[in-house]
Structure formats: structure tokens, C-alpha cells
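Recall from the previous lesson that a structure prediction takes nothing but the amino acid sequence as input. Here we apply that procedure to KTSC domain-containing protein from Williamsoniiplasma somnilux. The sequence below is the only information supplied.
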Amino acid sequence: MKTNINWIETNSSAIKKIGFESNISHLYIVFQLNEKDYEFCLKGIDTYYAFLKSSSKGSFFNSEIKNNKQYNLDNCSHKNSEGEPND
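The prediction returns the following C-alpha cells.
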């Protein structure tokens, strides 16, 4: 698990933690099921704040992030978590 991320614990039955790395606008999600962190590329911080404020984290993830190609790391136009530019 990444140590430079400020993780926020949730009370969600699906999502254990949510983190955000502001310098590269990456969202990190840890699911209750496997406790592995997944990384998503955001275009800004608005989606992160909306996710935190949502009443159902699992529903928000499923409707707004899960299959949304704009959040796929392959489509990321800025640096990845290792500091390397994405191609």
C-alpha cells in the first residue's frame, strides 16, 4: 500500500479506504473484499470530493468511476504514481 497517500477510512460495506494524491490527481480505492489498492487518474479534485460526500461509496464508484474510461490510467495525461509521464 502506498505510504504517501492520506487515506480516509469509510463506513462503506464495499470500500474500506479512499485516498488522493493531489500532485498527480490520482484516486486510490481499497475495497473491503481484497484490501488491494486500485489507482485511477482524475482530471481534478472535484470527483474525489463528490466521492467522499456520497452517501453510498459503492454506488458512486459503480456509477461514476468503475467503467469510465476517462479515469483509466492508460488515458492519463499527467505523471503516474512513480513520477513517470504516461504515454
